[in-house]
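Handout, section 4.2: multi-component inputs.
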Amino acid sequence: MPLALEYPFDIKVFCQTFELAHDEVFYALKILEQNGNLSFSEGFFQPTRLQFIVSNEVLYNFQIQHEDYYQLCTTLVRSYPGIFEQLTHLHEDKLIQRLKLSEKRLYEQLEFMQKNGIIELTKKNNLPILYFNMERLPESYLQLKPAIYLERKQSAQTKLDAMQHYCLQATCRAQQLITYFGQTSDTCGQCDVCQPRTLNESALFDFLREARSIEELERQFFCANTALETMIRPHLLTEKIKFKAGKFYL
Ligand SMILES: [Zn+2]
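Output:
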């Protein structure tokens, strides 16, 4: 019978442990998901779940060897029918009340039983869940369908082209977006295309509220260095504009 292989997956810890880059891991998972090897759900709350994975007899022997576990084991078996057959949601609060244990002690006991192979335990968490949809194949057997790469590349290229087109078109930005959604509109009068950033003193002082390099000024005002210098020079003399470490500022 195939085992349901699902794990809470803390991508941050995983990347730290194996010294991998977060983005690479995330996109690798997405590719494996598209390839059908696994599914990766967003994080949502998962309660603690538990299953006894030994026979009654083994459990009985364990209780004899560890007397202080007797109460916990019996309470679990009595409170949760089916706990030998499948992972069962626990209600920790009720257990803590009934057993008069601290939460810390309850988890210590559960973890001890897990270490001894008595139970399977998934502690409550908010982590994404990783499901293995098929048997975990050795790396050399793992084949990625070429279509998955090509489709991703094509889709990324289409997005890039569209963005490039949007930026380079000398058409009102708002109008371009509205046209994309199949409607028409007048120009907005507000965007960078509608309002060319012509160089004037008020715009210059406004922009220099933060320290700026000459390159930033050129980009902002679409103008040549000389025009900027002509405007800035008198203000440098009166120290209304200052220049330090390659930047102009007020
Ligand atoms: Zn516009």
